[in-house]
Amino acid sequence: MNASPFVSVVIPTRNRAYMLGACVASVLSQDYAPDRVEVLVVGDRCTDDTPAVVQQIMNRDGRVRYLMNGGLGINAARNTGIRSAVGDAILLIDDDEIAPPHLLPQLVSALAYYSWAAGAGGGYRTLLEGPTPPRVCVKCLRTYKDYSLGQANGVAEVSNIPGGCALIWRESLAKYGLFDERLSGTGDDSEWCRRAWKAGGRFVFVHDAYVQHRVDGSELTMPALLRRYSDLGAHVRAWVDPADGGRLYREFTQAARFLAHGIRHGCVVGWVRALDHFLYWLVWPLARARSAHLAVVNWAPQTSRES
């Protein structure tokens, strides 16, 4: 096999034509062998200019393909892309992100070095765009979608990698199943990581690898925040582990911490995040009945691209 594994980049999207072009362009501009990359954009019942935007890109670059998902949600879109992928590894990235040129080589190098890992992930760094929303503190404006794990530098073994910046061996997806298509929203990607972890899969987090997560000011208004963080069903299905008794205490203390932040700084992000963690705490007793019904999607992988 060629020293560089063939990578299939899967980008689920829904009505974000205005962001999608920059995302795809950043993936196509990686410091990685161009003939070892394909890009699969999966439209989740898009009603905007997404098909036209992707067609323009496809006319310029034959490595890009466009698939349609039918409005079944982000995990179903991810699975649609994975099923059509021919790469040795799958890079999952979201349509509101921009990948620096070093992202793919860093994650591939991590998987090559830590050969026991099922996948490697990087972090998010907030890129604020548009007008500054009212009643949001400076810290939350700069870090709203930041995400990091492990040590300040280097690589750390972790139990979870973010679904918007994850490189996963296709063999791992075949072994542990695809993403639960009933989840679409908060925690939709974490359920897969938890399932793989319980079955023996391990992950590494590369601190210096990251995507820029674009944030429009409209996402930080009270209605938008409530939509993002108050999905009761997602809390039950994706995040709460009924076997983890210590979670009750952690969620309660997190709720108190965010509430204090919201009151101290007059910040709506703090108020809504407090509600988010309080909901985790509230629905924990319901999780035992629901957790047994999480679906595992079986998948027979296609033949990998020959080197």
Domains (count): 2
Instruction: Please provide the count of β strands.
Output: 9
Give unreliable regions as ranges.
236-240, 291-300, 303-307
- CATH homologous superfamily placement of the largest domain: Spore Coat Polysaccharide Biosynthesis Protein SpsA, Chain A
Looking at the overall shape, the CATH architecture of the largest domain is Alpha-Beta Complex
Reading the helices and strands in chain order gives EHEHEHEEHEHEEHHEHHHH
The residue-averaged pLDDT reads 84
Identify the overall geometry. Answer: globular
CATH class (first level) name of the largest domain: Alpha Beta
Quick synopsis:
The protein is α/β, with parallel strands linked by helices and 307 residues long. The chain has helices at 17-28, 50-60, 74-84, 103-113, 138-143, 170-176, 190-198, 222-229, 232-239, 247-265, 268-291; strands at residues 7-13, 37-43, 64-68, 89-93, 97-98, 119-129, 155-158, 165-169, 203-216. It contains 11 helices and 9 strands.
What does this protein look like?
Helix content is 41%, strand content 20%. With 307 residues, the protein is α/β, with parallel strands linked by helices. Strands 1, 2, 3, 4, 5, 6, 7, 8 and 9 form a nine-stranded mixed β-sheet that branches. Helix 2 (50-60) links the parallel strand 2 and strand 3. The longest helix is centred in the last third of the chain and has 24 residues, at 268-291. 42% of the residues are buried.
What's the structural blueprint in terms of helices and strands?
Blueprint: E1 7-13, H1 17-28, E2 37-43, H2 50-60, E3 64-68, H3 74-84, E4 89-93, E5 97-98, H4 103-113, E6 119-129, H5 138-143, E7 155-158, E8 165-169, H6 170-176, H7 190-198, E9 203-216, H8 222-229, H9 232-239, H10 247-265, H11 268-291
Parallel strand pairs: 1-2, 1-4, 2-3, 6-9
Antiparallel strand pairs: 4-8, 5-9, 6-8, 7-9
Helix pairs in contact: 1-2, 8-11, 9-11, 10-11
